[in-house]
Structures are given as structure tokens and as C-alpha cells.
Amino acid sequence: MLVGIGPGSVDHMTARARAAIAEADVVIGYVTYIKLVADLLDGKEIIRKSMTEELDRAVSALASARAGKKVALISSGDAGVYGMAGPTYEVLFQSGWTPDDPVQVEIVPGASALNSCAALVGAPLTHDFCAISLSDLLTPWPTIARRLDAVAMADFVVALYNPKSGRRTRQIVEAQRLFLRHRRADTPVAIVKSAYRRRENIVFTTLDRMADADIGMLSTVLIGNSNTFVRDGLMVTPRGYANKYDMEEGGATRAGEKAGRSLSTGLLGWLDQLQAEHAAGATIEALAARHRLPADYIAATLAEPWEDEAVPAGEGEA
Amino acid sequence: MLVGIGPGSVDHMTARARAAIAEADVVIGYVTYIKLVADLLDGKEIIRKSMTEELDRAVSALASARAGKKVALISSGDAGVYGMAGPTYEVLFQSGWTPDDPVQVEIVPGASALNSCAALVGAPLTHDFCAISLSDLLTPWPTIARRLDAVAMADFVVALYNPKSGRRTRQIVEAQRLFLRHRRADTPVAIVKSAYRRRENIVFTTLDRMADADIGMLSTVLIGNSNTFVRDGLMVTPRGYANKYDMEEGGATRAGEKAGRSLSTGLLGWLDQLQAEHAAGATIEALAARHRLPADYIAATLAEPWEDEAVPAGEGEA
């Protein structure tokens, strides 16, 4: 049982996470996570591992399970997000395991650091977001740099995991440099350490000062998108209601927009607009530049035979 | 209290989520989520809202709270991820609310759909990932398209929320088109409907057939990165151990690599390599093309005064 324990507070564990640990004969995990669930561990065999030994933790778990024991392999947050799920399946497959094996696997989902940290700072996620790890222990730097640049350009809210350590101090500087190619210097940034734990600490800063902030191994960095704002100590990314409703004037729908329907600049409206611009003489290249989309995508979209979609009656959607 | 109830199974709610609902006088939510927690609702005032009325839900919550009631506003998954947290803070601020107000706000984090769905299909996330909503009800299509293209190019694992509805049938087709510009046609895709609920359904397919699959409003689509594989009905994204360890030969560290340290192609090693290539005569433009990074970033990095970083003694890291 690969158990995501959430941020590390008993209140924020799921019923299944607690039950899985309670059912286990053996509990394996990085020492900090074992300590976080100490109250659940009486009478169990505890195997504490140190940080770099992810593969060892999975190998230990498999060995204990093959010996007929129930094993809880614990991760902070969610086991599937930079946690033990991937490494464990890699070790299982390497050993010749298949799902028909007597050893059965369950992954117990939990709230990841980005969810827990976000809950403490306001509503920074709200809309499209990414998680990127600045750890280059297993990933080449150019791969990480390309990802940072791509999501900064495409205006995602971004959560940086493993932002900095005693040895890795420059990656956060490079991340700031890449983000500043696309984002304003005053883009809100929140740095959350030890969410829902005793030494919880939250700092708000801006993109141009992110690399100078106090960031460590227990920190998650949240970088806002171009609409994110901080007000009264809360970081909020708008959902986009202002695109459809006049928020100042009692929430009336703007001209040309309709509740429960795509925006006038949603896919179908945009396709109409594109067709019209093209018919009016705009070249593929000009349209690509104007809409900041690849020329081959514009061309393929224009070439698509255009049929009115049958619209079923029924409720709108959020 | 903005409560994320997770995937919609009592087992997968946190203790705090259950406690918050139990403490509430009033419980507000979309009808489907209210039904998911029916067993907790005896004696409470229940306000059921339909799908497009997110702002109304927040306005109702504020009105009840101002009347002195404790209100639980529930979202599936995590309230901060395409949930009620953002809309609620927008409504609060619009009303003149500040954190000093008698009405206090708590966001209770939960596992989002991407975590729950991932737990059921294997370990698809593991590494850098993104969430993108295909709903264009509040977001212009070009914004969504740029995001899809950027993350496909930068090789993220991608979770598509709101992938398709009765009215929005073409967005998933466009998403597939954009992804195929960068990813192999056989990239693994998992479609999970109603995770941990009675009508749970999981389908594996590939990128080139994604748009033809049975996808609805209750589905989350997970698109693998270029290393994701499906084996024995499990979708797994490798963590990258093969970059450092010879997985075939008992896990020995590869030549030039070291456990607990950055890869030879991690930031510092890569910077050395870049300096050497430049000193050997490669132009900025050639380096930019070779490493697929912006030329101005390459130039700025080369211009940075290079000092050996003091490396503190101590443990490595994962």
C-alpha cells in the first residue's frame, strides 16, 4: 500500500490512509514522514530510510510483501507526485512482478504539497497549473529549463518542488531568470514551508526577488500567472469570470456572452473569427503571429471541413 | 469552510473535511457533490446548486456566514483546483470583505482528480505534470491552445480537466491535434471516469485515438510524457533512475554519475559543458539550437560570472 499521507498532519490524512497504515505489519518511509505518523505505529515493524534511498525503500517493501507481510510504504503528500509510486512500480516490474502476483498493490491518493500550500495562501491555483521539480539529480538541466520556459510563456500558475537544497542553490536563480523572460517582475510568489506542521512558514514575495528568499528542502514555491494578485495577505488567481461578467456592475453578462456557454472567443467563436480573418485576406503566417499559435495548426484548423455541431438540449456547464 | 471532499468516497475524505462538514450549519454545493456526502448531512440546511452557478454558491455562502452560520461550501477533489476557492475569494473581495472581518475563511485541501485518477491507473504522474481545463466557458480558446502546445512540446505529463461535454465536443479533437505536433501517436493515454465511485471506469488508449474515446463530464484524461509506458494494464512514468543507474545491471551507478548528487548533465555539469562548447567556438545561436533553449538565456548564462559554489558537507538528497 503506497500511502500518501498529505501535508503531515493527522487532520489532513484520509480515512483510507490511516486505515492502510493501521492494517500494515511493516511501515517503511523516509524518517521525517515516519515521525509524522508516529501515533499510528505501535507494534509495527518500522523501516526508516534516508532521503536518497527511494529505490531501496521499494526493494524493502517488495521483500517484506513477498514474505507475506502487509506493507505500508508512506510518502508525504500524494505518492504519485514525485513520490514512491513510480519508483515502486519500476522496481516491481524489474523484479518480474505482474498484477497476477500474490503481492497486490494499492495506491492511496492524498493531497499533494501544491494543494496544501495553496490552501494556506488563498486560491493561487484556480486555473491551469504545472508542477516542476528543480531537482536535477535524475533529470538533465536543459529538460528542466525548457519546461520552465514553456510554462512561463504559456502563463500557467507554477508550483516548484524541490526548489533548493544545501547543494542545489543556483537552480532557483535560473528558474527566476527564465520566468522573467515572460512574466512581470512583480508577479506574486508564495513560499510555503512545512504546511500544516509545527514550523509552518509562509512568505509572499515577487518574481524578481524569488531567488533571494529563504527557501529550503521543506519549501514549495508557488508562482502566479499574469492575472494572479495579492490582496490583504491572500494570493488569488481569478477564474476568468471577468471575461464573461461585468464584475463591477452586479455581475451582468457582457454583451455577446452567455452563462453556461462557451465564450465568444471560445473554440467555435474563435474558429468563426479565424475563418473571417482569413477570408478577409490575412495570411496563415499573419494569423499565426496574431494569435500566437503555430502556423501549421492554424492551417490545419482552417482546412478542417466546417460543420455545425448538433447541440443537444440540456443544462449548461460551468 | 471551503471543503475539498476528494474523489467522492467517504474513505478518501480527510478527517478535517468530514469534521468541517459535521461542524457546519449550512452545506452548499453542486447537487452531485451533496449526494456524495449525504450521510453527513442530517439536521443541516442544504443548499443545492446547479453547475453554472459557481458565483451564486459563493454569494449564498457569504450571506449565510454573515447571518452567523457556519457554512461548508463543498467541491469535489480539491477546492483550489478548478473549484470554489478562487470564485469565493473573488466574491468576498467584491463585497468589501477583508481577513479582519467576522467571517473567517478556511480552505480544507483534498486530493484532486488528477491524484485520484492517477492512483487508479498506476503511476502516470511521477514527474513534472500540468493540469489544463478544456472548458472555454471563461477562457479564450487561443489561450488554451497555446498552453496545450507548450506542455506537449516541453514533455509534461498532462491531465485534461473538463475534457468534453454535450456541447463541447471539438476541444478534445483540437487538443489531440496540438499534442500530435510533438508526441508520438502511440503516447499512452488513460481516461478515468468517476474515480472511486460506483460507476468508475478506466480505459487505456493512445494519443492518436484519444478524441474517439468515450469521454464525458465525469472523465479526467491523463496523457503520458515521452517516457511513459503501459505494462500489464498499468501506466507508469519513470522517475529517471535510468539516467543515473544501470537498471539492468543491478542498479549500479553509471560512469560519471553519483548517488545523491546532481546528474553530470544537471545544472552545474551542463554549465561546464556549455562553457566548453562556447570556448571551442560554438556560437550562441548554435548552442541555443543544440540545447533547444532561448538564445538570450544561453547568452545570459554564459555571461554569468562563474564561481565555484561552496558545497556544504552533509547528506545527499533524492
TrEMBL record, chains A, B:
Domain Tetrapyrrole methylase: 2-210
Membrane-spanning segments: none
Record keywords: Cobalamin biosynthesis, Methyltransferase, S-adenosyl-L-methionine, Transferase
Superkingdom of origin organism: Bacteria
GO terms (BP aspect): methylation
Entry's EC annotation: 2.1.1.131
Gene Ontology MF annotations: precorrin-3B C17-methyltransferase activity
Keyword tRNA-binding: no
Pfam families according to UniProt: TP_methylase (PF00590)
Pathway(s) it belongs to: Cofactor biosynthesis; adenosylcobalamin biosynthesis
Protein name, per record: Precorrin-3B C(17)-methyltransferase
Organism: Pseudoduganella albidiflava
